[in-house]
Amino acid sequence: MATEKVNPWAKEADSHGGKREYENIRDMRFKDNNTHNIRLLPSKDYEKEPNKKPFFGYVIHWVPQVNSTKGKPIIHAVDKRCVLCEYIAELWTEVNRLKEEEEMTDKSPEIVKLYKKISDVRGNKKYDMNILDRDDLFAKIKKDDKEESVMMPKRMPANKTIWKAVFDYAKNPKWGNPSDIETGYDFEIVTEGEGERRNYDVIPNRDTSPLTKEELAAVKRGYDLERLRKFSTSQDMVDILKNAKPPYNDLVDKIDSSDDNDSTPPPAKDDDGDGDDQPVANKREEKKEEPKKAVKEQPKVEKEEVPEKEEVKEEKKATEASEETEDINQYECRGEHDAKDEACSDCPVKGQCVEFQPTYRKAKELKIDVGVKRTVEEIAKDVKNAEPKTEEGDKVPVKRKKLPF
Questions:
Q1: pLDDT tens, 42-101?
Q2: Which CATH architecture has domain 35-259?
Q3: What is d(CA 136, CA 140) in angstroms, rounded to the nearest whole number?
Q4: Which of 35, 275, 360, 383 could connect to 124 by a Cys-Cys bridge, CB 3.0–4.6 Å?
């Protein structure tokens, strides 16, 4: 009986630590204000393991160091929480407490200070992928003491904007697995802006293109992605945190050396340190739920008289209240709400994100900076000021970009 063929891009990657074995890595480098044409490749072991994931996920926290402007990275698996993840969760809990109990706002000095701490070490989830860079396909390698030019893959460390778009297309039946050797397709990655303000648009090619013999040979020269990312050990974390700027140097005592080989996934919906999962408010919500249950515990007769719809309404109100206490400005993905995405459906700021989405799209069309360092209020103001008007003062509709499908 034939093995069922699965789309490995349709589900998020698992992560495993490993040893770096490649000295000269061809990394994909994106240029400012440019168009890059790439082809995502299957795993180099696709013949033996056809369902092996062709990507590798991890989380990076950049920890600010004393007498340094760059900081040092702490890297861990996507299914694991580190001491910094726990610290960020505590900071979010304090933010929520100050907003609820002290009635503070995002502009309150205490909360601004907490946001700065969160921003300094908040993790970024990335995925490494083997690709063919259509604009730089060949590299010289040594063979039998001679140099020859061969088609060589690159490793692409994809940021959230890129990998989320790739996974979304891969999950769409109209597009499917982009790295399939027969039915895969290329992507255009268009960059706009410079440096940290650079935006990425990921556009799939309409036409599928089977890999050629030369390209299949290049697949086998691809990197063993799991071996390229060495996760930080407890000792690595101690060394980095000892030299970290306050208050991160105080986290050294919280490191547990027994966690190095523990890949047990974290509690569901309780991780906000990886830059992708939403900030946790679970501790605050649990405190809220208990009093509500106590209030609803009434004599049986009265309880029977309460229609089920009322309970649903109360739950809905509780959810909406929870959303209102979160700050959408702390999310990279604000304005990118996708009703089919499970992460979006569980997002604490879903309501705000849906409301902001039209403004976000309009800002992209008008080429207004939508970087995470800008607030949604600033972006909305710029959109309002930038929208062209007729002599009568009516807004002129802005033409939208055509979708690639």
A1: 999 999 998 899 999 999 999 999 988 889 999 999 999 999 999 999 999 999 999 999
A2: Alpha-Beta Complex (3.90)
A3: 12
A4: 275
